Amino acid sequence: MRFSDPRQASGHSSERQAAYAAKWAAEHSLQLDESLSLRDEGLSAYHQRHVKSGALGVFLAAVEQGRIPPGSVLVVEGLDRLSRAEPIQAQAQLAQIVNAGITVVTASDGKAYSREHLKANPMDLVYSLLVMIRAHEESDTKSKRVTASIRRQCQAWMAGTYRGLIRNGKDPVWLRWDGEAWQLIPERVAAVREALALYQRGYGASRIIDVLTEKKLSLTGRGPQALQIYRLIKQRALIGEKELTLDGEEYRLEGYYPALLTPVEWDALQATAGGRGRRKAFGAVPHMLTGMGITTCGYCGRAMVGQNNGLKPRMPDGRMRDGYRRLHCTSTSHGGCEVEGSVSVAPFERALMTYCSDVINLQALYGSDRAALPRAELAKLRTELADIEAKLEKLTDAMLATAGEGVPLTFARRARELEEQQQRVTAAIAATERELAHSVRTDTAGADQVWRSLVEGVEAQDTDARLQARQLVADTFERIVIYHRGMRPDDTPKGQMDMVLLAKGGVARLLRITNGGELVTAETVG
Fold this sequence. Notes:
Helices cover 46% and strands 14% of the residues.
C-alpha cells in the first residue's frame, strides 16, 4: 500500500487499496496476511523514497534474503503503486520479485505477473513496460510542474511579491501553520531556547537532552535524541530563513519564519559550533583546558589530556583534591616526550582564571584588533580558492579539447581532487567569515567581569561554572602550551611552572606560576 502525499491518509486512498487486496484474496480463496501489510504513506514512488526508506525497500530486501516464500502473492492496486521510477529500473524491481517465485497482482485490472504467466503470455511483459513508461512520464511531468511552481514562489518571495505558504521541505518543529500565518508553539520554543543556552555554555548534546528531560521540555514532542541538538544549531530557520534546494539550485528565503535569534546571536552560535573538538565526555569534574584540541605539551608538541581519579577520597566539602585532577602528555605513555610525568591541572586553571579576570590583560591578549587574525586567514583562503578555481578552469578546457578522444584518467582524477579541495576551502571560508563577524561584533568590555564571576564557581568545581569557563577558554584561545617543569627545566626555580596563552587575537603571553597557581610573572613572547 502506498500514497505519496500524507494528506491522502485522511481520504479514501488507503481504504480503496485495502479493499482491492481483500476482494482479490476472497475471489481466489486465498488468505490475506494482514500482519505483513506494507504501508508507504507519504513516500514517493517517483523519487524511490518508498524503496530507500520505506516498506517496499524492506520487502525487496526480504525477497533477496529468501524470507518471502515462493508462491506468495504481492497485491498492489496498480503497477504505478509499485514504482514510478525510470521504466528500466521499475521493470528490474518487478523482475526481482517475479524471479523469486512471487506473483504480483494488480487488483485494479485483475492482471497477474508470475514467471509461468509471463512465459505463456510474453506480451503482458510489454504491457507492464508500457504502463511503467506512462506512470513515469506522468510523475515526471507532475514533478517538473510542481518544481517550476515552487521555484516561481521562491523567486516571488525573494522579490517581495509573494508571502504565502511554500510547500517544500520540512518546517521547524517549534512552529505551526494556522492557515494564514506561522504561530510559535510556546513549549517547543522554550525547549529550543534552553537547548541553545546550554549548548553555548559548553554542554554536550546528551547532557542537554538530560536537562530538557528533567525540566519536562521536548524539542519535538517525541523521544529525546542527541542528534536533534546538532541539527538544531545549524537550522537557519532560527533567524527566520527557509532553505530549499530545487534541481541543485539553492534558495534562501529571508523572513519566511518568525525569528528566534538575531543575526548577532546566530553568528555567536555558529562560532561556538565551529570550536574544534570542544564537546568531549566529561568526568565528575569537567576539565577546562583539555578535550578541545588547543592544549599541548611544550616539550614535544603533542596534545595534553585531562584525567580525574574520582575513586580517591574527597575533601570535607565534597570537592575533588587538586592532586587527583591531572594533566599529562599523550606521548608520555610510550616514551615520546623528553620530560615525563603528569601534573595537577588545578594551578594552571587558577592562574588562567585570575589572569583573564583583569580587563587590561584581556585587552593585551586580543591586541589592537581582535579581528586581525580571522581577517588575514580569510584573505589567505580566498587567494587559495581563486588559485584552485583557475586550475580547475584550465583543466576543464584541456578535458573539453580532448573530449573526442576520450578524457584521460589522470585528468578526471585531478579534476575530482581539485573539486574536493574547492569544497573544503569554501567551507573554511564560510567558517572564517562567521568567526570574523563574531569578532567584529563582540566587544571585550565586560568580558573580565564574566571571567571574574566564574572564578569562585570554577574553584568550587561547580559543573555549570566550569562548563561556561571551558567555553570561554575555547572562544578566547587559539592554543595553550603547558611546561609543567618550566620552559627551561634546568633554569626554572623549583616549585614554578610555565604556561603560554596564545589568544585568537594573535598575542602570546608567557605566565610563570607557582605550584599553587599564583602568578609570578607575565610577559609577551614572539
